[in-house]
Write a structure and sequence with these properties.
- This protein is α+β, with helices and mostly antiparallel strands.
- The chain contains 23 helices and 22 strands.
- Helix 8 packs antiparallel against helix 9.
Length: about 725
């Protein structure tokens, strides 16, 4: 694996250090010395080679990139100058030129070779420095580093590896990295890892590893091969960084984000209007789609004798699961021991972390297994401390509900419960509003159609006067306001006599005390209206004063007539009975009580048949039918008295209807005096007849008109010899 390394600032050119004066002075001194020798020696001598020493002095000039080229140029110039200044010699000129050429060749060859050598040495030093830096960086890296051979055996680990895993280097060298495997991840993951790196690729991923102590940690791992020039893999280098805290933070962040999204969706759904079942279904969908649960459903606890739990909404993989639950929250039954029943009874969340091993879940285990449910939780839905249902969640893996998750779900269940109550309150409010609107319509219809007058007043100046705000049609008719608009007028302007009438004081009293008051029938008179009025006054919650009133002028007159009639009937010497169709007495006057010797309460407890045995119930029904048909009957009867012989009476029976009721107004006259006189007359007549018939003197009774014999006594029959016929 190629591991690039570049020191900070490597892209910047290295500053050229100032040359030290020593090597330069040395080179200059050598140049001067070699030039002096060359000038002193005659031409043809191979003294030009001495200038190579000047080039060699450049080896000690560090920091200069091209010192040898400069020194070679200087030596070339000095070689030429020596050729010109040296004394001639007795040698051929070609020899001199060859000597000078060899000198120049030596100078430049040396310069080139030294330059190459100096560059190679500099590169080697740089590589050595880079290796030192890399080694230091690896040793002090905050990441754990492992180097293995091509077979995967560990050759090197840095101190951070030891610190992270708890292993010492000597314990792991020669071992394979598989000693870190936690066993919590699938084998296919490691197979793909080796397949990737043996193909010459770099593998990156997250591994759950195990420390020497047995603790688990998450690592971000990067593994790649190191290849030689032929492309053969010689080593593998793995770099791992402990991301346990970051992963936990990431998990918490993901949980927080999921919680935030779920809360937002809950709030969004609960803010909408709709049917309760639809809203609950949408909330269950959020829990399935956002939170990843396999099934979410809501059930309500029925307070019936069986304590059943009725599913009302759900979302997720159900496949008929809810249809066969047959849940109850009764304590003494196996189907009441599940998470739902327990949560309802206790008012606390009930978690079952492994449905396969939890005994209480046995009645539903097989169906849950078929649908992939591994763990479950039931959360109570409460209002004012009373549990009315549960939110139930099922997950596809064990132990899916940790403390943080339960805390979130409890909050969501509480929000769901609050939302349900708000929906119900909103529905109740709407029903109340509809009822109020209907009531308002009925009130308005009643207000406009009722026969009593209704007027609404608004107080001004703390009850100093009242403004007419509204008045129904009956009120306008009674107050004679059809031809004038009194709405908006002061009460004292609309009805000038209201103070003298006494109603204004009642208005003020009701306005200040809030207690309804009755203003009895009183005569009112102003320029627009006169008559007997009766008022009931009360105050509304708005502070307005309402007067309900009736014109009782005709009633007053009728009452006067009725009182006159009642007084007459009560004070007449005749007995008066108001009799119902069934023969019971509605009312009797005092003369009836006095005449028959009964107290009023005794008399009204009797019936007509009790007083008149000649009219038993069967006869009474016939009598009532005849009275209803004819309307008036007169007959005589004997009425039973309490402590005296029956009383002969003449009954004047009258059929009448009053307020949709039928009555027999019976006026009963005592005729015992008349009856006694009739009996006395009958006795006198019989005595006279006996004297007439038995007198010893003949008597004849003749018709005054024609002298016919009308009657003859026994003495006359004997005298004339005729029979009386």
């Amino acid at each position: 694996m190629e591991i690039p390394f570049k020191a900070a600032g490597a892209d910047q050119p290295e500053p050229t250090p100032k040359p030290r004066p020593g090597p330069i002075l040395l080179a200059g001194a050598l140049g001067g010395l070699f030039l002096a020798i060359d000038i002193l020696l005659p031409l043809g001598t191979a003294d030009g080679v001495l200038f190579v020493g000047m080039v060699l002095s450049g080896w000690w000039m560090p920091g200069r990139k091209r010192p040898f080229i400069g020194l070679a140029l200087a030596a070339t110039l000095l070689t030429g100058l020596g050729y010109l200044l040296s004394p001639p010699a007795d040698v051929p000129s070609w020899v001199v030129l060859v000597n000078r050429g060899y000198a120049l060749l030596a100078i430049w060859s040396t310069a080139i070779l030294l330059g190459i050598a100096k560059n190679a040495l500099s590169a080697l030093e740089a590589q050595s420095l880079d290796l030192s830096k890399f080694s230091l960086a690896v040793a002090n890296s905050p990441a754990s580093v492992i180097i293995t051979d091509s077979k995967g055996r560990i050759e090197y680990v840095n101190p951070r590896f030891c610190e992270l895993t708890g292993y010492q280097a000597a314990e792991v060298v020669g071992q394979k990295p598989s000693l870190l495997k936690s066993g919590r991840q699938a084998d296919i993951l490691y197979a793909r890892l080796w397949q990737s790196i043996t193909a010459g690729n770099i593998w990156r991923g997250h591994l759950l590893n195990r420390k020497k102590s047995g603790d688990l940690y998450w690592a971000a791992v990067s593994i790649g091969p190191v290849v030689d020039k032929r492309g053969r893999i010689r080593h593998y280098i793995g770099v791992q960084e402990d991301i346990t805290q970051a992963r936990e933070a990431e998990r918490k962040l993901a949980h927080a984000n999921r919680s935030l999204r779920t809360r937002y969706r809950f709030a969004e759904i609960l803010s909408d209007t709709g049917e309760e079942k639809t809203i609950l279904g949408q909330l269950c969908r959020v829990l399935v789609e956002n939170a990843g649960y396999r099934l979410a459903w809501v059930g309500f606890a029925e307070p019936d004798g069986d304590n059943r739990v009725i599913p009302v909404a759900h979302c997720g993989f159900d496949e008929g699961y809810l249809n066969q639950l047959n849940l109850t929250w009764a304590e003494h039954t196996p189907r009441g021991q599940g998470p739902t029943g327990r949560a309802i009874r206790s008012g606390q969340p009930c978690v079952m972390r492994d449905l396969e091993t939890t005994p209480e879940f046995a009645p539903w285990r097989e169906e849950a297994r078929r649908r992939g449910y591994a763990s479950s939780v039931a959360l109570p839905l409460k209002h004012q401390g009373r549990v009315f249902g549960t939110l139930n969640l099922y997950a596809s893996h064990n132990d899916a509900f940790d403390g943080n998750e339960i805390e979130l779900l409890v909050e969501l269940a509480d929000r769901m419960a609050e939302g349900i109550q708000r929906l119900r309150e909103k529905e109740l409010h709407q029903q109340t509003r509809n009822a109020m609107e209907a009531s308002e319509r009925r009130f308005r219809a009643l207000f406009e159609t009722m026969t009593s007058g209704v007027a609404i007043y608004e107080a001004i100046d703390d009850g100093a006067d009242f403004i007419v705000k509204d008045m129904n049609q009956a009120g306008k008719r009674i107050s004679a306001c059809q031809d004038r608009n009194v709405i908006g007028m002061r009460a004292t302007e609309a009805f000038p006599a209201i103070r003298q009438f006494g109603l204004f004081a009642v208005f003020q009293e009701v306005y200040h005390t809030g207690k309804a008051a009755f203003h009895p029938i009183t005569y009112y008179q102003d320029a627009h209206h006169r008559g007997w009025l009766e008022n009931i006054v009360y105050r509304l919650d708005t502070g307005e004063v309402v007067a309900v009133y009736d014109d009782l002028t005709e009633k007053r007159q009728a009452e006067e007539h009725l009182r006159l009639a009642q007084t007459s009937l009560e004070n007449t010497s005749d007995m008066v009975f108001w009799v119902r169709p069934d023969g019971t007495f509605f009312r009797v006057n005092q003369s009836a009580c006095d005449g028959l010797g009964y107290r009023p309460e005794e008399l009204v407890s009797l019936t007509a048949s009790d007083l008149n045995p000649a009219h038993p119930p069967a006869v009474w029904r016939e009598h009532w039918a005849e009275l209803r048909e004819k309307g008036h009957l007169v007959f005589e009867a004997l009425l039973k008295r309490k402590e005296a012989p029956p009383l002969p009476v003449e009954i004047n029976a009258n059929y009448l209807e009053f307020e949709n009721q039928e009555f027999n107004l019976a006026i009963v006259r005592d005729i015992h005096v008349r009856k006694e006189a009739e009996l006395a007359l009958q006795a006198s007549e019989q005595l006279l007849r006996d004297l007439y018939d038995n007198a010893p003197v003949p008597f004849l009774s003749l018709a005054a008109a024609d002298g016919r014999i009308l009657r003859a006594n026994k003495a006359a029959d004997a005298l004339f010899g005729y029979q009386a016929e």
